[in-house]
């Protein structure tokens, strides 16, 4: 069994099951903390492993499961029903194309290596450097070198330095980046874009809309009716029946196609937003943020763990740089990059280390660009709700088809037995007297009615209503700073019972400043007062900060204010050092970096080995204060003298605790001297060298303030009221985590801050699986956690029946984001690896935006229920009236045209009106929606048996005031108004087409009063109490008990 199948089996077992055909069914999460029925002893009676529509989670679901529900669905218009689900056939073709392109590239490289080996035997050949316009090297030479990874060609250009000169770029400062320079580069080497396949046009949607089998039958029936009508009654009168059916069908097709086309445009816009990655580039000596599409040949780009390589290029510098090339080679192999293997391929991910690259090929001139241009981006993806609604549609469709067949049989029986009379009381069919053409005409009219009943009864638009409400929600969520990458996450978020949130940048502002500083055992007051520091101490602090950083400082030539770039922590420390008098450029130019140990979320620190002017070596470390302090044996006092740290450790630990209690992030800076001859001289040995991390000399400890975001406390309170528990998972120490949790309202009081409510990651990871599952439910704050601790917490909570949303921004957060029910990555601080593993990207990194996503998730479910109630009301009424009338009198009161009009209101316009209802505050005053909660609740069944007026009732199935907030939804008001006006036009002016008669004002008033009566009737109906146990659950229990007793 595949891992994904195992995961899915696990998730299915965590939530109870569903009903037959995913319909009325279903169950609620078996160990759900908010589920009053969780302890029901009869849950086992509801298990139905054979139900193809019971898919608790489509995230990571195997293709076999997805094929199974498609095959089980009763479908009359597959192109419409399955439009926004994953095209499994195209997905297979896409993988085959990728394999072909990868294999082609590998064959070319192998052939080149063979040729180069032969050339080395015969003597080196000179690569021609054909000028490319303003540049000394041409496009073809660059593309050939990059695609073939021809290191021989690179060497003949003079290595990366010589190549950068050819491309008029500076390896330290990048290109100038002015408009003229960028224009020249784009003209000479192309842009970092690739041709995309155009989305489907409106004509394509029109073509697909009319391919519904029932509509095709009606068009044929309309054509035959038109011919027979003209033949028997003449052109002037005979074209009405056939023409009116044809027009009604045409109207349904146009409205359906336009609605679907509008949705497709929304998905295209969202897709374009997902692909617009923002990254850093060095231009004119400063680090700036640009779009991936703005990268040009010659750009110098910094690379860090989690980044996507945005174009083909050559390594400039790298420290422990490892690239995951699986997206291009198809093999999950990590490749280490150095000057012997310097080529970087677009589309790959930085798995480890840091470095910088020179861009040599962009867009369609890269293998990644070619791959992206060849395969089309499939926006299809089913959601659990979509699958269940396909089950509902299948069930209703089979019932409708059965009813239509019964109506057809009854009407044909009555017609041919002489029991059907026209308006004048004349028998329509008399054996031996009625002409064949009249008989055929009569049969066609009966057949048309039966087919139209099928059109009304088979709700093809029901699963599509999910897509409509999801598309609407996705567009609105963008305004609320949430970019949805996976559709199913929208609805799953409505079921979330817990949110595991990061601290930094999510609960806090991520605007960091150093507010306290200890140098040696002396506290600086103010923290940037350098006058009390010994010059040697100050020099070492500045050297450590300037060299051991991934940030940068740009000082404009005109003497303007210096620009500090990097992560918020790096920016805070660099800014503090600048206030102490650090000259960033001078320090970096006076010493050479030998080796870098990038900051590691497991070790909580990063280091660098630096060669000085006098050939001495300093190794600088920076990281979590108590961890770095634990590796120090000495400190520098105010006179610059080394002193033993043992006697002062208690004082320094108390200083760290005091700062942490003020919710400050504590960072320690330390160093040690080292001998140059002990450092490996060969590059491959240096890459494997481990920086000495013991016997360090403490230089400084700084406390960095990162204030809580405004509104976070209210957002946490809102979650708590909504039955969603907020847990904080952070790499900061436990005291800092506790202080922030109290400030944000995650912890209510100091009395709550006891283990296991507040726990260290190390303690949690040492527990057994069973103990972790028990403890996970009680955890509110986890400090000093590693990404693996976060993953263990998510797994333990999910095993306990929770629906888990988790936030993450680092590359190492990817497993937890992938494992969670909803992965939320950060748009500003998040790495590309984290974003690709997530379901939703929080664009402003704000926890309040996460809470808005919960609101929208609940709104999706609520809107679908509104639409189902409205549609079933019309379904039941239309079918019931026609069946009763057909059986009792042989006539149907609603003819084909009238039924098609009802279908248009019910299916497309109804979905548009109700699926676009904005979320209300009341949604956050309920418990989370159980993932297996019945789609049709007992309240909906009650309301069903109590149409323009009913559309208002459907807005609030539980609320008594159905008009609250109605004016805020302009689309709803517009559709209701349009329906009302069209209804008047149909009755008053289109009588011959629709077989209706004009009404006088008294009759119109009577119609209005009858319609308006549905409002007070619905209010009275809402006072009728309903049992908590779903009706479908009770029926299923009885049915399965009977089944069990028979087999016993």
Structure characterization notes:
By secondary structure, the chain is an alpha/beta fold. Among the domains are: 139-191 and 293-375, Calcium-transporting ATPase, cytoplasmic transduction domain A; 498-508 and 709-845, HAD superfamily/HAD-like (Rossmann fold); 513-705, Calcium-transporting ATPase, cytoplasmic domain N (3-Layer(aba) Sandwich), CATH 3.40.1110. Helices cover 49% and strands 14% of the residues. The chain is built from 39 helices and 26 strands. Strands 10, 11, 14, 15, 16, 17, 18, 19 and 20 form a 9-stranded mixed β-sheet that branches. Strands 8-26-25-24-9-21-23-22 form an 8-stranded mixed β-sheet, sandwiched between helices. Strands 3, 4, 5, 6 and 7 form a 5-stranded antiparallel β-sheet that branches. Helix 29 (814-819) links the parallel strand 24 and strand 25 (822-826). The longest helix has 43 residues, at 847-889. It is elongated, with a radius of gyration of 35 Å. The relative contact order is 0.10. Mean pLDDT is 79; it is low at 1-47, 123-128 and 951-955. Residues 156-230 form the Cation-transporting P-type ATPase N-terminal domain. Its EC number is 7.2.2.10. Catalyzes the hydrolysis of ATP coupled with the transport of calcium. The chain crosses the membrane at residues 205-230, 242-261, 392-416, 446-472, 971-991, 1003-1024. Pfam families: CaATP_NAI (PF12515), Cation_ATPase (PF13246), Cation_ATPase_C (PF00689), Cation_ATPase_N (PF00690), E1-E2_ATPase (PF00122).
């Amino acid at each position: 069994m595949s891992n994904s199948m195992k995961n899915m089996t696990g998730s299915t077992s965590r939530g109870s099951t569903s009903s037959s055909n995913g319909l009325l069914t279903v169950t609620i999460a078996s160990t759900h903390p908010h589920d009053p029925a969780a302890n029901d002893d009869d849950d086992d009676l509801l298990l139905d492993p054979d139900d193809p529509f019971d898919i608790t989670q489509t995230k990571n679901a195997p293709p076999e499961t997805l094929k199974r529900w498609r095959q089980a669905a009763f479908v009359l218009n597959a192109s419409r029903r399955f439009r926004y689900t994953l095209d499994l056939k195209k997905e297979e073709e896409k993988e085959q194309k990728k394999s072909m392109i990868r294999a082609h590239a590998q064959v070319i490289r192998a052939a080149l290596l063979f040729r180069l080996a032969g050339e080395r035997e015969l003597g080196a050949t000179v690569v021609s450097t054909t000028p490319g316009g303003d540049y000394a090297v041409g496009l073809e030479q660059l593309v050939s070198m990059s695609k073939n990874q021809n290191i021989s060609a690179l060497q003949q250009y003079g290595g990366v330095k010589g190549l950068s000169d050819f491309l008029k770029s500076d390896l330290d400062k990048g290109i100038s980046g002015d408009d003229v320079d960028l224009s020249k580069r784009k003209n000479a080497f192309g842009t970092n874009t690739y041709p995309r396949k155009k989305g489907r046009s409106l004509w394509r949607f029109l073509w697909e809309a009319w391919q519904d089998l029932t509509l095709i039958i009606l068009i044929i029936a309309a054509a035959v009716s038109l011919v027979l009508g003209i033949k028997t009654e003449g052109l002037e009168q005979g074209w009405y029946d056939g023409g009116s059916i044809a027009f009604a069908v045409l109207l349904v097709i146009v409205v359906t196609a336009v609605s679907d086309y509008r949705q497709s445009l929304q998905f295209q816009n969202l897709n374009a937003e997902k692909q617009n990655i923002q990254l850093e580039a060095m231009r004119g000596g400063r680090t700036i943020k640009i779009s991936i599409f703005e990268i040009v040949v010659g750009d110098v780009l910094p690379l860090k763990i989690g980044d996507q390589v945005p174009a083909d290029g050559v390594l400039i510098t790298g420290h422990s740089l490892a690239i995951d090339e699986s997206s291009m080679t198809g093999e999950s192999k990590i490749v280490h990059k150095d000057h012997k293997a310097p080529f970087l391929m677009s589309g790959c991910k930085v798995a480890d280390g840091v470095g910088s690259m020179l861009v040599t090929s962009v867009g369609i001139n890269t293998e990644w660009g070619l791959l992206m241009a060849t395969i089309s981006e499939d926006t299809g993806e089913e959601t659990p709700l979509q699958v269940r609604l396909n089950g509902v549609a299948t069930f209703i469709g089979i019932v409708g088809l059965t009813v239509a067949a019964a109506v057809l049989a009854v009407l044909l029986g009555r017609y041919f037995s002489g029991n059907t009379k026209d308006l004048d009381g004349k028998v329509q069919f008399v054996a031996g007297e009625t002409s064949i053409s009249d008989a055929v005409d009569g049969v066609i009219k009966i057949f048309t009615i039966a087919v139209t009943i099928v059109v009304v009864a088979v709700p093809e638009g029901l699963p599509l209503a999910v897509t409509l409400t999801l598309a609407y929600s996705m567009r609105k969520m963008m305004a609320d700073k949430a970019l949805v990458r996976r559709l199913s996450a929208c609805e799953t978020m409505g079921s979330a019972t817990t949110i595991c949130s990061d601290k930094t940048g999510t609960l806090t502002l991520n605007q960091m400043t150093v507010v306290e500083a200890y140098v040696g055992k002396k506290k600086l007051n103010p923290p940037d007062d350098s006058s009390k520091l010994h010059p040697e101490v100050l020099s070492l602090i500045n050297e450590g900060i300037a060299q051991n950083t991934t940030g940068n400082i740009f000082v404009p030539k005109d003497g303007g204010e210096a620009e500090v770039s990097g992560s918020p922590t790096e920016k805070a420390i660099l800014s503090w050092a600048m206030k102490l008098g650090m000259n960033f450029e001078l320090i970096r130019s006076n010493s050479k970096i030998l080796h870098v140990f990038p900051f590691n979320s497991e070790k909580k620190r990063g280091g660098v080995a630096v060669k000085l002017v006098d050939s001495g070596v300093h190794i600088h470390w920076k990281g979590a204060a108590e961890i770095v302090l634990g590796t120090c044996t000495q400190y520098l006092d105010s006179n610059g003298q080394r002193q033993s740290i043992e006697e002062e450790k208690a004082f320094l630990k108390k200083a760290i605790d005091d700062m942490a209690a003020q919710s400050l992030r504590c960072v320690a800076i330390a160093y040690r001297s080292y001998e140059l001859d002990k450092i490996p001289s060969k590059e491959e040995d240096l890459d494997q060298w481990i920086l000495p991390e013991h016997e360090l000399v403490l230089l400084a400890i700084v406390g960095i303030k990162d204030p809580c975001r405004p509104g976070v406390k209210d957002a946490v309170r809102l979650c708590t009221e909504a039955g969603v528990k907020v847990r904080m998972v952070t790499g900061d120490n436990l005291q800092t985590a506790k202080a922030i949790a109290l400030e944000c309202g995650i912890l209510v009081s100091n009395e709550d801050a006891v283990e296991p409510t507040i726990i260290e990651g190390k303690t949690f990871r040492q527990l057994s699986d069973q103990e972790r599952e028990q403890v996970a439910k009680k955890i509110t704050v986890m400090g000093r956690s590693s990404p693996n601790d976060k993953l263990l917490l998510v797994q333990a909570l999910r095993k306990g029946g929770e629906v888990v949303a988790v936030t993450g921004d680092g590359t190492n957060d990817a497993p937890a984001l992938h494992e969670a029910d909803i992965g939320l990555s950060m748009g500003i601080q998040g790495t590309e690896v984290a974003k690709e593993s997530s379901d939703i990207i929080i664009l402003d990194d704000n926890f309040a935006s996460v809470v808005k996503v919960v609101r929208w998730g609940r709104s999706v479910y609520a809107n679908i229920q509104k639409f189902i109630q409205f549609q079933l009301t019309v379904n039941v009424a239309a079918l019931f009236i026609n069946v009763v009338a057909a059986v009792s009198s042989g006539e149907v009161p609603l003819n084909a045209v009238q039924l098609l009009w009802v279908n248009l209101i019910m299916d497309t316009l109804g979905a548009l009106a109700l699926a676009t209802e904005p979320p209300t505050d009341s949604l956050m005053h309920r418990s989370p929606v159980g993932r297996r909660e019945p789609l049709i609740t007992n309240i909906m069944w009650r309301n069903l048996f109590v149409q323009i007026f009913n559309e208002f009732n459907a807005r609030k199935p539980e609320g008594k005031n159905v008009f609250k907030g109605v004016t805020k939804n302009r689309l709803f008001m517009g559709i209701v108004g349009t329906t009302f006006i069209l209804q008047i036009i149909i009755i008053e002016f289109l009588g011959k087409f629709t077989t209706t008669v004009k009404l006088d004002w008294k009759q119109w008033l009577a119609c209005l009063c009858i319609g308006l009566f549905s409002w007070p009737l619905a209010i009275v109906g809402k006072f009728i109490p309903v049992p908590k146990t779903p009706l479908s659950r009770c029926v299923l229990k009885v049915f399965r008990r009977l089944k069990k007793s028979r087999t016993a």
